[in-house]
Amino acid sequence: MMTDKIVVKDESLNGWINGFIGVVLFSGGLPATKLAVMEMSPIFVTIVRAAVAGILALMVLWIGKEKRPEKKQLIPLLLVSIGCVVGFPLLSALALQYLTSAHSIVFLGMLPLATAVFGVLRGGERPHPIFWFFSVVGSLLVIGYAVSQGISASPVGDVLMLLAVILCGMGYAEGAKLSKTLGGWQVISWALVLALPLMIPLFFIYFPENIETVSFQGWFGMAYISLFSMFIGFIFWYKGLAQGGIATVGQLQLLQPFFGLGLAAYFLHEQVSIGMVVVTIGVILCVAGTKKFVK
C-alpha cells in the first residue's frame, strides 16, 4: 500500500513537471503569433503552423512505426484537431488583428477553468469544491489585473479570444483523456495528421504574393508557433494532464499569461508593471491551493 501511494505521488509530481514545461513553451505562442500576423494573414499563419507541425508529426509517427488510432478514438482526435490545431490558432490569430498581445494573453487566464469544465463533462473528473473556488479566484485575479490596467478592448477581438479559449479547453480535455490510452505525443501527432489533407491545399490557395517582404521577426514567430506551440509543447502538456489529472494540472495555465506578458515585454517591448508581479504571486498561491485540495 505504501508503495502504491509513492507511485501515485511520483506520477502526480511528474504530471506537474511535464505540465509546467508545456505551459512555459505555450507562453510564447501569442507573442510569436503577433509577430507573424503583423506581416502575414491570420489564415495563412494558421495554415502554415498546422501544416509544418503536421508534416513533422507524420514523420515522427512513421519513424516510430506507431499503430493507427482505433475507430472509437477518431472522434476525440477530431475534437482535439478542431480545438487545438484549427480553432484556437485561427481565432486567436484573427483576434490579434484587433487586440494587443497583452490583452489577448489575459484571456488565457480563463483556460484552466475551461479545461476543468470539459474535464468534468468529457473526462469524468470530479474535483473538490474548494478546487473550483481557487480556480475561479485565480481566473478573476488574471482578468481583474487586465481590467485595472485599462487596456483598450475590441468587442470583436474579445469574442474571438473567448471562443478560442473555449475551443482550446475542449481540445486540452479531449487530448488528455485520450493520452491515457493513445499516448501524449501520439494524440497531438494524429490530430495534426488529420488536419493535413485540409491544410496542404489551403497552403497553396492562401500563399501570399508578398512573401519575400516578410522579416526575420515574422519568420521567427512563425517558426516558434509551428514547432513549439503546435507540437513540442503539446507532448509535455498532454503527458502532464494524463499523469496528474486534467483539472489539477490544468491550473498551471494560470501562470501562462504572466510568462507570456514577460515574453511580450521582451520581444514586443510592452511594459511589465510591479502589479503584474503581485498578481503573479496570488496566482501561484491559487495553483498551490488547487494542488493541495483537489481529490
Defining traits:
80% helix; 295 residues; globular; 13 helices
Describe this structure in words.
By secondary structure, the protein is mainly alpha-helical. The protein is 80% helix and 0% strand. It starts with a helix and ends with a helix. 54% of the residues are buried. The mean pLDDT is 84.
Number of strands: 0
Describe the global form. globular
In DSSP terms (H or I, runs of 4 or more residues), the helix count works out at 13
Q: Give the low-pLDDT segments.
A: none
Q: How far apart are the termini?
A: 18 Å
Helix content: over 70%
Largest sheet: none
Q: What amount of the residues lies in strands?
A: under 5%
**SSE sequence, one letter per element:** HHHHHHHHHHHHH
Task: Write down the Rg.
Answer: 18 Å
Outline the secondary-structure elements:
Blueprint: H1 2-27, H2 29-37, H3 42-63, H4 71-95, H5 101-106, H6 111-123, H7 129-148, H8 155-182, H9 184-205, H10 216-244, H11 246-249, H12 256-267, H13 274-293
Helix pairs in contact: 1-10, 1-12, 2-10, 2-12, 3-4, 3-9, 3-10, 4-8, 4-9, 6-8, 7-13, 8-9, 8-10, 9-10
Brief write-up:
The chain has helices at about 1-25, 30-35, 40-65, 70-95, 100-105, 110-125, 130-150, 155-180, 185-205, 215-245, 245-250, 255-265, 275-295. With about 300 residues, it is mostly helical. It is globular and about 50 Å long.
